[in-house]
Specification:
12 helices; mainly alpha; two-stranded antiparallel sheet; 3-stranded antiparallel sheet; Creatine Kinase, Chain A, domain 2; globular
């Protein structure tokens, strides 16, 4: 159908060179009235891939949520794919996240890494503090529970991926995190990080120990947003650690992430192609890759 109409499926996370409008509705009108011009300008320009993870009960849901929260820098760093703004590279691997944050500049504290949550009651207290819409839909953190939908964690910080194969790698990563959380529960461990300071070489991306864990988590996310995942020690530590929780036959789905450690992030490769074929040429190559991926099934 797309080919017949001459249209193009363009899986890119940021299109800030175009003018978009927000579909009229009472909810969005209230958001526009409350959040102002920054919301109108920035919210409509971004797109993302999201992953929703379910749970069997409340305790498991928040165990999964807190595990996902801990690994948000990995979801950000592996997914970075928006190195352009106003048609040019900016030196930032995920400009999409800058737009995500700017959309609610008036209430900037609403974005970022979410706090640890232990129960629906604790989440309800967080929602009560929201300045508008005391509802999960307005919990604008980079991950959030959506209990009214049966969702333990909705991951919102990923850039749009160019192919189904790439997206499935993050589904596998999310599944590995869930399995890791459940395995640690069986071992009597309920909190992250699931290692001691002696094991820190497993996690070359950041140091998360002691009472400064939240500070390091925020810093790790900002590093991931700026440059993507970098395998500093050449051992693929975090990815190998998580992959061991997956069934053997499912580890193959993580291969696109291993490729990014070896060949560079999508953002790196997009900038490289930009210098060869320009912005339009880069986007056309992305669209062609998606079309071929869909044809292969």
């Amino acid at each position: 159908l797309v080919e017949q109409t001459g249209a193009m499926l363009l899986p890119v996370p940021l299109l800030d060179t175009e003018t978009f409008t927000i579909t009229p509705s009472p909810r969005y009108q209230l958001l526009l009235d409350t959040l102002g011009e920054n919301f109108r300008k920035h919210a409509v320009a971004v797109a993302s891939d999201q992953i929703n993870i379910g749970a069997e009960n409340e305790a498991q849901a928040f165990r999964i949520f807190n595990a996902v929260r801990f690994f948000l820098p990995e979801f950000m760093g592996y997914s970075v794919a928006s190195p352009f703004s106003q048609g040019k590279p900016t030196g930032v691997a995920s400009n999409r996240m800058n737009f995500y944050d700017r959309a609610i500049t008036r209430f900037s504290h609403l974005t970022g890494i979410p706090p640890e949550l232990s129960s629906l009651e604790a989440y309800a207290r967080e929602l009560e503090e929201l300045p508008i819409f005391q509802h999960p839909n307005m919990f604008y953190k980079y991950a959030r529970p959506m209990p009214h939908r049966g969702v333990a964690a909705e991951i919102r910080c990923m850039d749009k991926q160019p192919t189904i194969r790439d997206y499935l790698a993050f589904v596998a990563l999310a599944k590995a995190i869930v399995y890791a959380a459940e395995a640690l529960k069986e071992q009597g461990q309920y909190a992250y990080p699931p290692y001691t300071s002696d094991d820190i070489e497993i996690f070359p991306f950041r140091l998360l120990v002691g009472e400064n864990g939240r500070q390091h988590l925020d810093r790790a996310f900002e590093e991931a947003r700026k440059q993507g995942i970098i395998d500093k020690n050449g051992d693929r530590g975090m990815l190998c650690y998580l992959s061991r929780f997956l069934p053997d036959e499912e580890r193959k789905y993580l291969e696109p992430l291993h490729e990014r450690l070896q060949r560079g992030t999508l953002a790196d490769r997009m900038v490289h192609r930009y210098h060869g074929v320009g912005l339009e040429g880069t986007y056309r190559e992305i669209a062609d890759a998606l079309r071929e991926d869909v044809k292969r099934g």
